[in-house]
Give the backbone structure.
Amino acid sequence: MSTTLNERIKQTTFSSEYQEAMLSILVAADYLNTKMQQACEEFDITSTQYNVLRILNGVYPEGHPRCEIIARMIQTAPDVTRLIDRLVNAGFAKRTKSTLDARLSVTIITPKGRDLLSKLTPIMQRFEQDVRKKLKGPEAKSLTKICSQIFSD
């Protein structure tokens, strides 16, 4: 039983070790999401918008159609079209027509979006360093494997 989890959610007993494990994962994810969201708010974007910019930066100078962005997102978002609209309106991304299929709109990160990512990257790397201080390499690999078992079908 995790004393830290008990203190965090003020609960001392669980229906099973599986419930405790699920709650531990949810609390850890919330902790990381909150830290990321706070960092992104300093730059007037959401962590979901950061994720989309990171995805687009990974294929720069190419882009992705909306369906491919959705497939690569860490957290599902209810309206990716509006999310992309906000990035385009802020100048962080632009839309073009696909050269392979004129019916498809492709979103590409702009130099302004890449500049924003270059400012956010050191902050996100500090979060990774914080995790490194708390987990040894084999523990991180084990956690990755366990999480993969949970979210794979």
